Amino acid sequence: MNQSIQPNSFRAGPDEDGRFGIFGGRFVAETLMPLILDLQEAWAFAKSDPEYKREVENLNTHYTGRPSPLYFAERLTEELGGAKIYFKRDELNHTGSHKINNCLGQILLAKRMGKTRIIAETGAGQHGVATATVAARFGLPCVVYMGATDVERQAPNVFRMKLLGAEVIPVEAGNGTLKDAMNEALRDWVTNVENTYYLIGTAAGPHPYPEMVRDLQSVIGREAREQIMEAEGRLPDLLVAAVGGGSNAIGLFHPFLDDKQVAIVGVEAGGKGLDTDEHCASLTAGSPGVLHGNRTYLLQDADGQIEEGHSISAGLDYPGIGPEHSWLKDMGRVEYVPIMDDEALAAFQRLTRVEGIIPALEPSHALAEVIKRAPQMDRDQIIVMNLCGRGDKDVFTAARHLGIEL
Amino acid sequence: MTERMDRRFAALAEEGRPALVTYFMGGDPDFAASLEIMKALPAAGSDVIELGAPFSDPMADGPSIQAAGQRALKSGQTLAKTLEIVREFRKDDNDTPIVIMGYYNPIYIYGVDRFLTDALAAGLDGLIIVDLPPEMDDELCLPALEKGINFIRLATPTTDDRRLPAVLNNTSGFVYYVSMTGITGSALPDTDKVGDAVRRIKRHTQLPVCVGFGVKTGEQARAIGATADGVVVGTAIVNAIAGSLDDQDRATGGSVQAVTDLVRSLADGVRAARLAAAE
ipTM, 2 decimals? Predict the structure, then answer.
């Protein structure tokens, strides 16, 4: 447990400069600064505008299919013999993951700001698909930057984006993964400042993105809170979610941060092990630094050069993390732990067989942690896990790792 | 504040011509070759040197400077070695102002105080840090000014009159006007527009205004130099270096000359700038 002085509330951040403690901020080129300030103003207005709230809620209900169910995983609970396990089923959303929650909110904002072109970065392709979807829904042209490596390993999502009318630009720079895609999206934005809205997919980047994405994703936690009260008459003992950039996790966690009785665990990609170079555990094995507009925990070398991450899951393959998670770690409010590729893959198979749900490889990391913890807990205790994405996109990857040729 | 920068711009004002500011990447293609290139710059006509410090994720740079940074990192360049280049250069030249241009994270990891102390001792005169806007002045700008190192700010076409005072506050040495929205190495915009922008900025500051992004030839340097106090050339020089390397990205006998030939023609351009403007 960290020795820092505990705040009155863990839900008050960020401050007006976009800081969560020392984390967050606005580390961007001058060309982008006026845009970031415009965005901040537009967001501050929208979030307190009842009409904006109505539009978001209407689309959440009728387009996405919210609220997503809170499902009691009876057989998995039985098999593990400990705490009761509930899944927040954001994998049932339209487009197959939690990403749509954020995209709808942001594209409504882009419309309000009069922007006529949408750009996004994507790793696994889930955010790219969600962005291409809302761009199609609102009739705006859309360009998605995706690392060349990811384009190759996520071919079905690339095809989906193209079907939806988006232009997918493979990024060859660096290792051709998410961070390189984000660099390229920033280069596009800095060039096309007049008409372009950058729809960032995770709770990272310069202020106000971390706050905005969190607020839009917090619908997950708000619903889960109501649903667990209805099902069990009390709050859960433990929340678990996977963290890559951290948007699904902060969405579930945020409404519970001030409930001291609720323990919270974020699960990072441990890849092939923290003693190797092939992992993405920036909170467990990284150190604070500045990248992509914010200060946060990063994987980096002694010279401050950013290192490439590795994970079986392209969605967790990012060497940084949203700044609010960095702060929650340092404050000791949330515990962050790594799960290895093979553990995630085993959890992926187990859920498929025991509950008939094929999870994405990202929440399979959270699931692996649940599988470790549930048996250590009492039968009257409750775990809520964010099942933030479905695994259809991952069947090829899983098959390859299991040595099966499709 | 170190005095080389102000002294240099005062001398150029006396001479009645704009400065030629040359950028190249420290450590590209390796430490020794880049030091040799740097040492040849003043004699070829460079008045101020921008020394690039490589970063793994150069968000504001185009393909040429990205590639130069990758070559430098691959050859083992670090921020400590970039300071070492400054130190070595200063052994023979105590007049040419040197500015390190890069991104914040390597400095943050080096440690701001330690970096500023080492940079001053090495003979550095200024910093251009792309991802530190005025909103982040507490991080490095104010400590640098306190230590006596210039903090040179970028002003861009999106920096409107409302925002200019904030950008110019705490700026010293010169103002770097980025002539268009975009990444380094893009096409040069209309020189009339650039002239208007320079005049707009000069209404708000006494500092010299140097213009960069897109200048590639002596002729363009002349056109931009007609209104600006300095012309910054980066990508064209980086391309000249890249074009001189062998197929394994190693420097060749022609590397230094490839740079000095280009810099000479750029220097001719800035020297002709005011004559042309007066005609």
Answer: 0.95
- B105–A290 C-beta distance less than 8 A: yes
Q: Best residue in A198, A305, A306, A318 to probe B by mutation, most B CBs within 10 Å?
A: A305
Identify whether the C-beta of residue B218 lies closer than 8 Å to the C-beta of residue B269: yes
CA B25: distance to chain centroid? 10
pTM: 0.95
Which residue in chain B is spatially nearest to A307 when comparing CA positions?
B56
Q: Report DSSP state, residue A298.
A: E
Report residue B159 as tokens. 């920096």
Residue B146 is a catalytic residue: no
Reported as a pLDDT band with limits 50, 70 and 90, residue A152 is confident
Distance CA B238, CA B37 (A): 11
- What is the amino acid identity at position B260? T
**Gap between the Cα atoms of B21 and B47, Å rounded:** 6
Structure confidence at residue A1 as a pLDDT band (50, 70, 90): very low
Distance to chain B for A304, nearest Cα, Å: 4
Name the residue facing B57 among A29, A33, A179 (closest C-beta).
A179
**Chain B residue at shortest CA distance from A288:** B109
A381: its two tokens? 């205790």
B14 is catalytic: no
SS3 A292: coil
Of B108, B159, B163, the CB nearest to A304: B108
Query: Cβ of B183 and A304 within 8 Å?
Result: no
Using CA atoms, how far apart are residues A147 and A130, in angstroms rounded to an integer? 17
B94, exposed or middle or buried, with CB in 10 Å at 0-12, 13-18, 19+? exposed
Which among B79, B131, B159 has the least Cβ separation from residue A303? B79
Q: Residue B275: its pLDDT value, please? A: 63
**What DSSP string describes A37-79?**
HHHHHHHHHHHT-HHHHHHHHHHIIIII-PSPPEEE-HHHHHH
For tokens 């400054």, the residue is B86
Residue A340 · residue A272 · CB < 8 Å = yes
Q: Which of B100, B135, B152, B170 is the best residue to mutate to test the A interface, defined by the most A CB atoms within 10 Å of its own CB?
A: B135
Mean pLDDT in residue range B33-46: 98
Please indicate whether, in this complex, the C-beta atoms of A174 and B56 are within 8 angstroms of each other. Answer: yes
| Contact of B268 with B218, CB cutoff 8 Å | yes
Short-list A173, A1, A263, CA closest to B70: A173
